[in-house]
Amino acid sequence: MSKSISRLNPKTLPDAASIGYSQISISGPTRLALVSGQVAWRRNDGSVSDRLEEQTEQVIKNLSSALDALDATTHDIVQMRIYMTDLNDETMAEAMGQIIAFLDGSQPSLTGVGVSKLAAPELQIEVEMVVHTAG
């Protein structure tokens, strides 16, 4: 049995379709949207700060754009995965402070993963989400 999957590439996020993936995939019948990992890239500007604090701010803006495209809120996030290149107590505390504020009291399942590299050498953090949508 084939299930329908919808793909979204909101104009407010980097153009993933041009390089072969979708920013958001929505699968039925439960209507879960799988949001690709968001990094500190802007739609039309490739510059990235070398500061984790500023990278996390941009990641959160990108996550917010994805939620807006889904007509969802942080309370609809089912799961988040946070990937960091320099995962330690200090960097995790710095990033998590902003992420907890972004979550606004919602408590999705969350996993933190230390990795050696992300998609570009300057990137320090990437966050992906699974979001329950209204169908």
UniProtKB/TrEMBL annotation:
<dbReference type="Pfam" id="PF01042">
    <property type="entry name" value="Ribonuc_L-PSP"/>
</dbReference>
<comment type="similarity">
    <text>Belongs to the RutC family.</text>
</comment>
<protein>
    <submittedName>
        <fullName>Enamine deaminase RidA</fullName>
    </submittedName>
</protein>
<dbReference type="InterPro" id="IPR035959">
    <property type="entry name" value="RutC-like_sf"/>
</dbReference>
<dbReference type="InterPro" id="IPR006175">
    <property type="entry name" value="YjgF/YER057c/UK114"/>
</dbReference>
